[in-house]
Structures are given as structure tokens and as C-alpha cells.
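Two proteins, back to back. First:
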Amino acid sequence: MLRLTPALLAVGLLLLVTGPASAGTVRKVCLTASEAVGSANTKLTLARRATRQAKTEAATRRAEKRQRRAERAVSRAYKRRGKACANRPPRFPRPIKYSLSSETDPDTGDVRTYIAIKKPPRDADGDLVLLDWTATSGSIIWADRYGVGAFWDRDKTKDGRLKGGTITVKAYDGAAAKPTTFKFTIADGER
């Protein structure tokens, strides 16, 4: 049976008034669920104190029963908060567009290609998004972790053309278990 607590009523009213969930609504529901966890933890602390301070055997049993009830309430509050505060991974805007520009180092003859993603990935929860760049050939020698670009030190084919490869960009928000991944392939000779 569902018991209507003030926190649960607040969540229901918030959803009723605001309509479909937006990022702000999700954040408010998450805060309300977090307040419910705090309230349940306070009740548990008081129940534990009452158990320690009980003078008689009967009072100890009553206090222990209240403590077990409070522990279950804390567990339920944490589960509700976990559902309300579910993190959404960052997303790359579609269609994903990128640009390439290459330059040759006059001293070494190495070719470096700057890769820029036109629109960076966004996080619906407002978390900071970090990017991790990798390449199947050559190496990524510098990447702007917060932005949209990286320098790719490219190998050359036997006939002297720039070697292509697959570039993988992973977007992390620090909270999601799995990053969002975008891969694109650059052909041999493409600058």
C-alpha cells in the first residue's frame, strides 16, 4: 500500500502543475526525492538514539521496532531518489558535422590534421561534458577535452599519401556509466 508522504505529494503536485518532464522538472523532482532521503535519515538517527537510551526491556523492543521501520523507510527513499535522479548520457547533435584541416611541419615533414566537430555534444542534465579522442592509425597528439577539436598526427601510406583511419570521440559527463560514442572514418589522402 502506498503511503502519501509530504515529499511524495510534492512530487505529484510538481508533475501535475509542470506537465511533461523537462530538465528543470527532473532536477526539481530529484531535489524533492533527496529531501525525502534526508528526512528519513533524520528519523533513523532519532530511532537509533531512542534505542540506545531505552531503560526497560519493553522500551528497547519498541525502539528497535521503530528503528527497523526507519531503516526500511531510508531504503525506500534511496530507491525513489535513484529513479527520480536518473542520469542521462550526453548526446551528439544530429547530423554530426566535422571539418579537417592539415598542415605539414617543415622541419620533420610530419602531417598534422586538425579535426573539429561543428557542434559539441550536450548533456540534458547540465553536466560538464569531457571528450576522449582516439585514432586507429597515427595518434591523437592533443585534444581539447572540453571543446570540439583534436590534432591527429597521421601516418603515410607506401605511396606517400596521408593514411586514413577511424576517429572515435567518446563523450563523458562524469555521472553516466557508459559514454556516448561517435565514430567517423577518414579515407587515405583526405585532408
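And the second protein:
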Amino acid sequence: MFWWWIGILIAFGVVLLVAAALSTGRRQGRTEATRELNRTQFLRALSDLRQRRAERALERALADDVVRRPLRPEDKERCRREWREIQARFAVDPARAVAEADRLAEEVARLRGREGLPLNIPARRVAFRGKRGQASLRELRSAIEQYGTIINELLANGLRATGS
């Protein structure tokens, strides 16, 4: 009879150990899921922060623009036409479209009398990385949007002029 109780206690101990092991495994699984969720949220917040910084850099670059000379109507129309072609080409070859947008933005800036675009515009870094095939589609899409803002701002008649 005594051995019977010892067997029950050993079986009960084994059941407790198995339950503890399963509980720890579930908790560890939840911890991993929580870590992955936190990592995803962190990366999203970091991406949003980078986007805001890029937008501020772009705003500073455009705000520093001083109109030195207006665009001739034929240059303005040619640049608008090129911009529309670049936008259409983005669906087929995003990296090439971003590189062409960089070239066009630089050209329009020079036509306006600027020395060119600042190198610290985030879209320019993406354009460079895109030429080497190292930019993601999301980065390329963001860069083409930034170039759109730059080009449209430079082509606009009412371009902001500071320091006047």
C-alpha cells in the first residue's frame, strides 16, 4: 500500500513538471511574439521618423530656394512633359525613373538659376542606391514622391523666395 502512494506522488510530480514545461514553452512563445510585435512597431516608428526628417530636409531645401530667373514657357512645358513620362515609367522600372527624376530636378533647378539641388535630400541617396539595385520599392516610391514635390515646386510660378 505504501508503494502505491509513492507511485501516485511520482506520477503527480511528473504531471506537474510536464505542466510547468508546457507553461514555460507557451510563455516563451508569447514572449517571442511580443518581441516580434515590438520590433515591428519599432521599425514602423523608425520609418516614420525617417520620413518626417526627409520631409523637413526637403522643406528646408525648397525654402532656401531663391528665384534667380523665371522659366521660359517652352522649358516649363518640356519639363512637365518629361515629368509625366517619368511618372509613367515608374511602374515599369522604378529605379530608372527615380534616377531620371533626379536628373530632371537638377536640370530644372539649374534652369531656375540655382547651382543645383542639395546633396542631403533623402531622395538623392535613394536614387544613388537605386542605381546600384540596393533600394526597396517603398524607398523608391517615397523618393519619386519627393522629386515630384521638388519638380512641381520649381516649375510653379509662385516659387517661394526667401532672403529677398
